[in-house]
Amino acid sequence: MKKLKWTAALETLAVPFLLLALWALASERQWVHPYLLPSPLRVAKAALRLAESGALFKHLGVSFQRVIIGFFITLGIAVPLSFLIHSLPFLKRLLRVPLEFLRSVPPISTIPLLILWFGIGEASKTAIIVMASFFPVFLNLMGGLNNIEEDWKELARSLQLDQGEYIRFVLFPAAFPSFLTGIQLGLSYCWRALMGAEMIAAASGLGYLILDSQDMGRIDRVFVGIFTLGICGILLDKILIKAFNCLIPWKDLEEEQNW
Amino acid sequence: MVENAPEVIIQDLNRIYKGSDEAVHAVKDISLTLTPGSFTALVGFSGCGKTTLLRMLAGLEEPSSGSISLFPENSYPAVIFQTPRLLPWMTIKKNMNIALRHRVIPRQNKREIKKRVHAALEMVGLNDRADAYPHELSGGMAQRVGLARALCQESGFMLMDEPFSSLDALTRENLQKELKSIWEKKKSTTLFITHDIAEALVLASRILIMKEGSIIADLDRNDWILRNKPEAAIMSLMNNPLIPRMVYATS
Ligand SMILES: Nc1ncnc2c1ncn2[C@@H]1O[C@H](COP(=O)(O)OP(=O)(O)OP(=O)(O)O)[C@@H](O)[C@H]1O
Ligand SMILES: [Mg+2]
Fold first, then answer.
1. How far is the centre of ligand 1, averaged over its atoms, from the C-alpha of B193 (Å)?
2. Cβ atoms of residues B79 and B58 within 8 Å
3. Are A158 and B79 within 8 A, CB to CB?
4. Residue B219: which domain range?
5. In angstroms, what is the span from residue B177 Cα to ligand 2's centroid?
6. What is the predicted ipTM?
7. Sign of the Cα pseudo-torsion (A232, A237, A242, A244, in order)
8. Does B14 share its domain with B114?
9. N or C terminus: which one in chain B shows less Cβ crowding within 10 Å?
10. Cα atoms found within 13 Å of the Cα of residue A115, Cβ hemisphere only
């Protein structure tokens, strides 16, 4: 058993190590100009310095805080709206066109407007995050609610559950796995959108750090920013899946993503 | 609270499914009365319409025509579905608890609920699995929980769709005995679907044989036809090609 685990770990880490080695070789032999491709060591040193000065965590924290705030606003709109539309079909017809329109607009394309309206303060970033995360959450939850099995509805009827009990014991738990999928997708979408927004209209945050480093000619710091994003993404996904598996013990979520 | 066993009167009941190709006449012109406190078994080949009839009685399916009346009107059946239908996101105990929300009055009587759930799980031999999730049970265990969930409701009206179909012979025999003794105490009006003629004979005092949507025979356990080799008699009734048109009359 243990041996198997070791080989599996080796398999997953082999390619990253190989790429790292290749990178080190490329910068050592100067296949690419050192300004464009700093060595891994330089990037590591830059990372250490950014971490020591606290700048890295400050920017990361700012971005993170924006995501959290925006995401809660998304939940506050998307969850009630899903339940309302699920139980009042006329609302679906009423809101169909506006919602489809909004879904087709990439959030980042609204930045010029947002800057005009809100300036480069927090409001514009929050709006971007809400726009980016709303549809994954909303659509997945809607899907979960609409796809509830007929069997469970019948069971609820045969047990005489009233509307509130039906929602609490049957409808919401049935839709819960899709809801979590929506959360997972929504978080990764709004993280991406936020990076765009921070590059265009911000004075802090990880996106700002990356763009600012480029302006200063510190490509090593650009790399630090990108790596931070990638690593945080992986960690966040792992944490979410762990948490989801605790929340829905009846359904084993896939550890691996289906790309 | 023990409900009274209702009388169930079924009149000219029909159910037609308009499927993709051909309409299926699943229940054809069924009229019958279940007397209060009677135990009736419904047997018949797969696809003959047993579940459809039961679902209409449970109010889960609208009849295409005909009527079902209950006296008293407010009787509410406890149903065992053909598949156990345990909510996968709840433990066994929780699954049982929600079945009692509208059965135990006052509703907040936690002690009564606990007592009943415990007793019902004890009866099907699953008390030690009360905190397990449904996916952690075997098929037969899940079926037993389904049975316990229906029994703990202590309804005067029971509708059971093959509740013992995936149990081993020994467990099945034990549960038949339990069910029988519970019924003898409570005398709920019961309709019990089974494929197993022997089981019908053990449990029921009245046996309905269904074929292609109709009741082709309505037998009392004491009928002459069942006096010797009852299983052979029922099989020959079910296999007789003439019978769908010639409803079997018993004295
Ligand atoms: N929802 C449905 N839509 C269309 N046809 C249906 C539906 N439910 C049942 N039927 C048809 O009605 C007929 C009777 O089905 P039913 O489930 O009542 O049979 P059954 O006697 O319970 O069979 P089994 O013993 O296999 O459970 C079948 O021909 C079936 O295909
Ligand atoms: Mg059936």
1. 13
2. yes
3. yes
4. 1-77+158-169+187-194+207-251
5. 23
6. 0.88
7. positive
8. no
9. C
10. 11
